[in-house]
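TL;DR need structure tokens for one chain.
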Amino acid sequence: MTTPSLPPQPLSPLDGRYRAAVSGLADYLSEAGLNRARVEVEVEWIILLADRGLFGATALTDAQKESLRALYRDFGQAEIDWLAEKEAVTRHDVKAVEYLVRDRLASLGLDAIAELTHFACTSEDINSASYALTVKRAVENVWLPKLRAVIAALSDLAREHRDAAMLSRTHGQPATPSTMGKELAVFAWRLGRVADQIEAGEYLAKFSGATGTWSAHVVAAPDVDWPELSRTFIEGLGIHFNVLTTQIESHDWQVELYDRARHAGGILHNLATDVWTYISMGFFAQIPVAGATGSSTMPHKINPIRFENAEANLEIAGGLFATLASTLVTSRLQRDLTDSTTQRNIGVAFGHSLLALDNLQRGLTEILLARDVLLADLDANWEVLAEAIQTVVRAEIVAGRSQITDPYALLKDLTRGRRVGGPELAEFVEGLDIGADAKARLVALTPATYTGLADRLVYEL
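>> reply
TL;DR here they are.
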């Protein structure tokens, strides 16, 4: 039996269910966004060549330049459709862009400079500049601001809960208390460091012809300093210039970026699973959303879906970023085409990452800290003060105020594998051979006050 066909549907959830959350990336990392950047590169190259008066060309007037720049500034559905129709014939995406620019030059009465279109360029001259522009703009205008927003939300929560004592769990077992604020600050600090690295990254392009030698350029105009002209052109676009390449720009800047984005995703994944765990332990209560359903059969449930969605999408993004980095670092001899298909998934990788960031940002605003639960958890685990007691005893021994031998073993015998309450610990401390001041400090200590400098460390953000 043949399944009836549906009306045309998006195959990717990024273009369907989650489109609203990631649509900002499409302005840059879609096929249309790439083609708009290609037109920009082609147009700006024409303008520069004409301005330099190469081959007798006359510099364009300001009005003519604005008319040409309108080709990419006003790039829209008409150009998208025109390119799709032309590429169906050329079977070459960059060649279709060249034909579009030539067609528009004719309509503007600029046929005289038509041959400056794509002059001495290989497709990868146009592509490397276009990918550098689109990825840079997508990261700086869409993805990085969302990452910064998550960091800001984390930092706000860290400051708000800097003094909220909580029992730590190293290896899943009760451990020296911290504060919820300090634990969230750790994530904010880690993410801020990687975000700074990404922000400082370079976006490189080449513009040196078929095999990176400027061979055609030199034959056409031997007296022109083509490397310097190319550098001027690329840097004028707001990106960095790679002078030493094969036919392609070597993509190392992309490898660095995607590895850093994957690194950020790993930290975010760690955040998502930790917050999920804190919710499951009751440390955070989730704020009910009016009309929302947690379970189709259990009315009481509020599921931590924001953090689960983020976790899954970070795993997908991380896999794609890893593939991009491992594939793009290699190109056989002077050129192969593995990068062409690979780079078309840059938007997919950033899309899943952006979707995760959006869920985390929302999720962090939909939780409330249950301080009473944290305090109850601390009060049930007085044995974590064993570290404090044995450390103070050691200090007292060094100071000559105690004759105790092997304080670690003493506390291990008292506390390991068993629960010890506050009164029992107080009685134990009173019987220790240590100075009065030390004894008073330990008797006054509780799990909730044994947090060291945790609240102050939040101010390191």
